[in-house]
User: What shape does this take?
Amino acid sequence: MKPIVAIVGRPNVGKSTLFNRLSENKKAIVVNQPGATRDRNYADSSWNGKTFTIIDTGGFEPVSKERMLSQMREQTNLAIEEADVIIFLMDGQEGLTPSDIETHELLRRVKKPLFYAVNKIDSLKHEELSFDFYRLGIDRFYTLSAQHGGLGVADLLDAVADALPAVEEPAVEEDRIRIAVIGRPNVGKSSLINKILGFERTIVNPTPGTTRDAIDTPFEFNHRNYLLIDTAGIRRKSKISIQLEQYSVVEAIKTLNRCDIALILIDSVEGVTEQDTKIAGLAHERGVACIIVLNKWDLLEKDNSTIGTYVQHVKDKLKYLDFAPIISASALTGQRVLKIFDLIESVYEQYTTRIATSRLNVQLEGILQRMPPPRYRNRPNKIVYVTQTSVKPPTFVFFVREPKAIHFSYERYLANRLRESFNFDRTPVRLIFRKKGE
Assistant: This one.
């Protein structure tokens, strides 16, 4: 499980800019306006050979100074509770503010690695702007420019990487399939787990958000060993406090980082919501095998065309999970719950399948004959060969003359042909393109 690094600080100090710098992408929206980060941002990062998940804890729009301080306290308390390492970011251009001082008073009691950083120090002549922060009485703070990078960011990352806790490798459990149950609150996650296990292992409560932590249960079914993981519900920002929403999402991410298959529960009565698509996207981004469970099927008025119409609705909403099997079920009555395990076995077999390099390249020859890669700079962009480098999910590396010239549409063509050729119709696959000779 990757350690968590949280960036905390008042609005507009550059948290999203630093997040983008550390995650090496442009995932967070950056504008010069307080509260611009509306949604939670999470990304994996690495430094000095260590990997971690970084969290931008912006995400609120202050109504007044009093409300801002209250929400700041929530954010800081969350970081204290959830993160393994905390970066407290302040604005060198504005100097030390009352909000910074209040946050410092909260953080000084933290029993976790804590790093103070003063942002917007864009050059040596700006270093004197950081002197005001010595009033906090801290031993060390890092001056940096999140926008421009440079030595300040590198020094901070060196210290963060050194402070990261050792990652414990999970115990190897032979043939144990790890299953995460994910979905919005109140879609029946705990009820499904209880029905599978046959006893009240987890709390079932109609109040959304009852489950706050992941709960693991090893069990055996049909002579196969499983580990079932119940996850905290992910709630819409408009319906909950900042702290609970963030806590739930972090727990879901941690769970997805250590599972093989995600059962994505959808409320059949409500249909696929925007929040469902976000949750499914978390699983997809992490290469987890997925099964879509249409729960509460017993509450739906049905005719002969209901299931077909509903399946098409799900496929239209979750196009990026077109490989994921879909099953209707009822955690309340037990309808088709055990049939989920037939799908789990089928999906897991594909998820762990390894194809010999010789077979891959024989098939690749025919695939390329049917449609070669588009030319690059008026020359053929030849794919030399392909090899499978890992499973969970099946991952294939293509060695090509110019990797950056492979368009997304051609990558999708290759993925679809691999699915057809090697029966990968129920598992995610990953394609990586490298320059030949590397």
Residues 26-40, 59-64, 210-214, 233-245 have pLDDT under 50 and may be disordered.
